[in-house]
What we know:
43% helix; 6 helices
Amino acid sequence: MKAFDCKMCGQCCKGEGGVFVEPGEMLRIARFLRITPRDLERDYCDFRNGRMYIRTGEDGTCCFYRNGCGIHPVKPAPCRLWPFFPAMMKDRENWEVAKQNCPGVNASCTYEEFLLEGRAVLESEVP
């Protein structure tokens, strides 16, 4: 039983602060959009607190979300890892909230099954 299967609903694409992107991710996204990294930075990103972030609109929604993720094949690590964030992996209550708000989280899955799948996802992200 799969604990998470993204429905591309955009619920996780909303939230103040944006998603930080690493330099290699910036390059992949720029190539995917067929623009230069400088254009990506200028038109779609903000530099804050020593990091580059994908810009959000006034409503807090990622600038790349329009009826689905516009950069889904090359989305940055925080987006790829959702919902397997440390806060979810350490706190059952956070997972319960995510389960109620994210249609991609399998509501019939146990927390233990969620943790197993999450660990596998996190291990696959290690270079």
